[in-house]
UniProtKB/TrEMBL annotation:
<dbReference type="GO" id="GO:0020037">
    <property type="term" value="F:heme binding"/>
</dbReference>
<keyword id="KW-0560">Oxidoreductase</keyword>
<dbReference type="Pfam" id="PF00067">
    <property type="entry name" value="p450"/>
</dbReference>
<dbReference type="GO" id="GO:0016705">
    <property type="term" value="F:oxidoreductase activity, acting on paired donors, with incorporation or reduction of molecular oxygen"/>
</dbReference>
<keyword id="KW-0349">Heme</keyword>
<comment type="similarity">
    <text>Belongs to the cytochrome P450 family.</text>
</comment>
<dbReference type="InterPro" id="IPR036396">
    <property type="entry name" value="Cyt_P450_sf"/>
</dbReference>
<dbReference type="InterPro" id="IPR017972">
    <property type="entry name" value="Cyt_P450_CS"/>
</dbReference>
<dbReference type="InterPro" id="IPR001128">
    <property type="entry name" value="Cyt_P450"/>
</dbReference>
<keyword id="KW-0408">Iron</keyword>
<dbReference type="InterPro" id="IPR050196">
    <property type="entry name" value="Cytochrome_P450_Monoox"/>
</dbReference>
<keyword id="KW-0479">Metal-binding</keyword>
<protein>
    <submittedName>
        <fullName>Cytochrome P450</fullName>
    </submittedName>
</protein>
<dbReference type="GO" id="GO:0005506">
    <property type="term" value="F:iron ion binding"/>
</dbReference>
<keyword id="KW-0503">Monooxygenase</keyword>
<dbReference type="InterPro" id="IPR002401">
    <property type="entry name" value="Cyt_P450_E_grp-I"/>
</dbReference>
<feature type="binding site" description="axial binding residue">
    <location>
        <position position="408"/>
    </location>
    <ligand>
        <name>heme</name>
    </ligand>
</feature>
Amino acid sequence: MTVEEKQHQQRIQIPFDKGWPLLGMLPPLLKNIIGTFSKMARNHGGLVAFRLPQDRGYLVSDPQLIKEVMLSGEPKFPKGKYTKRMEAVFGGGLITAEGANWRRQRKLLAPIFSNESISKWLPKINEATERLLKQWNAYVEAGASVDASALSRIYLQDVMGEIMFGNDISKEEASKAAEAMTIVNDTLVEEFFRTTVLGSIGRLALTPGARRFRRALHEFNRIVDNAIRNADKGEGDHLIAQFRAARFADTGSPMTEKQFRDEVSTFFFAGQETTANALAWALYFLAKNEIEQRKVAAEARQVIAGAAPTWEELGRLTFTRQVVLETLRLKPPAYAVERRTSSAVDSELRGCPLKKDALVVIAPSVTHMNSEAWPSPEKFQPDRFEKDKLRDRDQYAYIPFGAGARKCIGMNLSLTELTIAIAMITREFEYSVSDGAVVSDKTGLTLRPFPEVPLTLRRRSRAGSATADQS
């Protein structure tokens, strides 16, 4: 680097949000993570520095800078210490793995989550959806409202139980696992903040939240271990069997028992939690937007000839897929992603040198509300995702599943589950948000609606309008 280039770099200043004395941005982040990051981006732009106790950070929300971080990857922007704390839940699974280990695991597992594999799971997904519709119908007959959040979790428990274990997990155990996952989801973020203030000592602090986390994690692990043992005893084309049968191309060997166990935990947790939250949010948005809800119902009745969609019909549920994508824009389950600058290699963004070993936050929840990429970003407008409207949009302005080589391996499975559930529910029922209900964000490891999504139901007439129960 020439003297002139060094002098130019020194003149470049990254905006800095200093926050509170000593505590930096920790107090506002504790109060409202998404709101605080959004305010920082509005006030300072697509790259802003901030401070936490015992840490320095950068919020990156500009799509081109996000691209730079995600495509650079290791060694400049490895996963950070907060992500590594998720190893308590996921071990060395794909969410937390890095480097050669991650690349090897990803290559091994990618064929299992191809569209060809997903198409073979379609009957199981459709059967679970049919059971979900029967539950909704029972609520209609009883004249009761439904909690879309709770039923979405039950639906994904059912789907993942079938796909992962061949349904070798009882409803009672699946319910306990879901409860444990909710606690882990909420309390692990508390642990992040606790260790931000206290450092490594914070991990040993026996706070009520820490005790709840450890109990819930123990219960989750117990249920997963039992389900694996039961699945191993039988036969079937479930994920347990496919994971067992997978072989590394370079050695011909299977995963070690630890690798296998870590991936099972990763997919069982992530495969339920993120998709269930997205489904609840989608139903909420459709309940608030009658025109879009009717369009989904009309499309489902026009496209789906039988009791459930075929793989070919699924591809023609175009507007329903747009509803899914718009929901994930407004409420991305993975609302913030962590990287770090390298402690050994120099990193920079937009010509600005970054401090070494600093937190780098990429927040889809912020980038998805960028008015330059998304006019009237706060509005629910599924037609944003019509093909002709996507041509000129920066692909890194939309990252609900991440981007680059580390894009979520389960993306297509999740989109399939969501599209089927939304189409089938809306084909059969008309629903609205119950009077007086207030739904807000709950930020844990994922973003979920809180406290619930209460919906008032009626059967939809064949003409497309709703009808009361006539039985």
